[in-house]
Every structure is written in structure tokens, then in C-alpha cells.
TrEMBL record:
This is Putative receptor-like protein kinase. One of its GO terms (cellular component) is plasma membrane. PROSITE patterns: PROTEIN_KINASE_DOM (PS50011). PANTHER family: OS01G0253100 PROTEIN (PTHR27001), PROTEIN KINASE SUPERFAMILY PROTEIN (PTHR27001:SF20). It comes from Noccaea caerulescens (Alpine penny-cress). The keyword Repeat does not apply. Keywords: ATP-binding, Kinase, Nucleotide-binding, Receptor, Transferase. GO terms for molecular function: ATP binding; protein tyrosine kinase activity. The keyword tRNA-binding does not apply. InterPro entries: Kinase-like_dom_sf (IPR011009), Prot_kinase_dom (IPR000719), Ser-Thr/Tyr_kinase_cat_dom (IPR001245), Tyr_kinase_cat_dom (IPR020635). It comes from the Eukaryota. Residues 35-307 form the Protein kinase domain. SMART domains: TyrKc.
Length: 307
């Protein structure tokens, strides 16, 4: 067996062991917020960032001045104990490219409070003409950072019986004051706890034939298309894919590239990212032969941008 393969497996074994031990350790402090405080911070729950089947996310300004994301959960029928259990499970997640859970509220709405979204969503910076356009280096860092967070979630899930259900697109990727990308839309998936390890082992290191894993890879592919084109998807990626395919038929990659990038991008890097995006998108229609880890490692190796 190749030494690099042995080393990779050994590192993964040690990481999983550490994660298992950490489950019984002390959970970082998660603050309980009052409902009135949350109502005021979100200006009466009017400042909506995005809304989907997980719930609705609001922009909030906390008393200390921090700009936070407050998420209202739709699954109100979980029961108080299940909700608090979810708070604990989400509170354990620690990664540079995940929003950190800082608090919760159990008033008339069940709310989760996540920290530091100073620069808003990725979609704002791709679509809003009043925002300073993101340069190519920033976009590549976002793609690699999101892939790194997805790999972390899959490995973290495979260390226990909990699976984290994640949604990835430009609406729910938040940017902090340094434009570091943060995945914000994560929930505990309670519908697959009877067979969690098969799902996540496949996602993290195997053939990734599981439908849910393939969907995450598909979403990552669409996100990369959004970064390249500057276009946001409104129909779960289908509209953007159709537009890109039309541009390809016309044999003009230039038509796909966001005009805001100008000529300040590396053509070879862009073509490599586009090739990866196309492979990821195919996972919507056929089981992929690669995993999130493969995508992340490839981008790290082929794109010369420090994360």
C-alpha cells in the first residue's frame, strides 16, 4: 500500500478518535437570548436574508454592535427537548468556514443565533451593483473554503450517529469582515439516523453513491458556476446550468465569465474550476465516482491560493 494512503488513513483514524472524545467534553458557551431582544435586533423579523425548507434567516444587529444571522426554525413540532438537543449538536461544530452558533431563543419562535456576517451574503456581492465586485482570488478562496467545510461536516458526522443536513448556495454563504466564507444553513438530519455511517463514509472517502451526498456535490458545482458567472440560481441550479450549457454550445467561454472580473483572472485556473463544476453537476443525474474530499484536495493542489 502506498505510504501516502497509509498516512491519510492514519490521520483520518486519529481525527475520528479525537472527534468521538470531544463529544463528551465541555460544549462551548451558547447564550440564551430573550425574544424581545431578538425582535428588536431583527427589526421585527423584517430583515430577511433567505428562506427555505430549513427555515428563515434574518440579519440582526446585537447589542454589542455585532452583525449576526438569526435563523427561525420551521420544525416547531420537534419539541423543546429536541430543539435544545439540536442546539447542543450544532454548538459542537467548529470550523473556519462554518458560522458558529452563539445563542438561541425559545420564545414564540425557535431561533438560532450565529455570529459575524459583517459583509452579508455571497449573493449580495455577486448581484448587487452597489457592492464592490469580488476579485478572482476571493472567489477561489470561497470555493475552496466551502469545500473544506463540507469535508469537515462529513467526517464529523461519520464519527457519531448524527448527520448534518447542509444546503449550499450563494444566498446562504455568509462573508465575515475579512470576506471569509461561512456556511450558514446546517441542520441535524433526524430522518437518516438509522443508517448514518454508510452515508457519510461514502461521502468522505468512498464512491459517494448515496443520493444525499450526490446532492451536496451537485450544490457545490452550482456554487462554483455562480462564482464564475456572477449569476445566481433561482431554480435549484437548473436555470444556471441551462444558461451555461447554451454558452458552451456557442463555443464561447467568455460569455460565461462574470464581466465584473474583467481580465483580472487566471484563465487556466478558471478552466480547471469550470471542469470541476461540470463534474459535480453530473452528480444530479448519475452517482459520482468521487467524493467531496477529492474535490477539496484537487482544488487545493491545482489552484495556488492559500486558504
Amino acid at each position: 500500500m502506498d505510504d501516502r494512503v497509509r498516512l491519510s488513513r492514519r490521520i483520518r483514524f486519529l481525527l475520528l478518535a479525537w472527534l468521538r472524545r470531544s463529544r463528551s467534553g465541555r460544549i462551548e458557551f451558547v447564550r440564551r437570548f430573550g425574544y424581545k431582544e431578538m425582535t428588536k435586533a431583527t427589526e421585527g423579523f423584517r430583515k430577511v436574508i433567505y428562506s427555505n425548507y430549513h427555515g428563515t434567516a434574518y440579519r440582526a444587529k446585537l447589542k454589542g454592535g455585532e452583525v449576526a444571522l438569526v435563523k427561525e426554525l420551521k420544525a416547531f413540532d420537534l419539541g423543546r427537548d429536541k430543539f435544545l438537543e439540536e442546539v447542543q449538536l450544532l454548538g459542537r461544530l467548529r470550523h473556519r468556514h462554518l458560522l458558529t452558533l452563539g445563542g438561541f431563543c425559545t420564545g414564540r419562535k425557535r431561533l438560532l443565533v450565529f455570529g459575524n456576517i459583517e459583509n452579508g451574503s455571497l449573493k449580495e456581492h455577486l448581484n448587487d451593483p452597489l457592492k464592490t465586485p469580488l476579485n478572482w482570488k476571493s472567489r477561489i478562496k470561497i470555493a475552496i473554503g466551502v469545500a473544506a467545510a463540507l469535508e469537515y461536516l462529513l467526517i464529523f458526522s461519520s464519527s457519531d450517529a448524527q448527520i448534518y443536513d447542509v444546503s449550499v448556495n450563494s444566498c446562504n454563504i455568509m462573508l465575515d469582515e475579512n470576506f471569509t466564507p461561512k456556511i450558514s444553513d446546517i441542520r441535524v438530519n433526524r430522518h437518516t439516523q438509522s443508517h448514518p455511517k454508510t452515508t457519510n463514509d461514502a461521502c468522505s472517502e468512498g464512491s459517494c453513491a448515496d443520493e444525499e451526498c450526490g446532492n451536496v456535490i451537485f450544490q457545490l458545482g452550482v456554487l462554483m458556476l455562480e462564482l464564475i458567472t456572477g449569476q445566481s440560481s433561482d431554480r435549484q441550479g437548473e436555470d444556471l446550468i441551462e444558461w451555461v450549457q447554451h454558452s458552451c454550445i456557442a463555443n464561447s467561454i467568455d460569455k460565461m465569465i462574470d464581466p465584473d472580473l474583467g481580465n483580472s483572472y487566471n484563465s487556466r485556473e478558471l478552466q480547471k474550476v469550470l471542469a470541476v463544476a461540470r463534474l459535480c453537476i453530473k452528480s444530479r443525474y448519475e452517482p459520482p465516482s468521487f467524493s467531496i474530499t477529492h474535490v477539496y484536495r484537487y482544488l487545493q493542489k491545482k489552484i495556488d491560493v492559500a486558504t
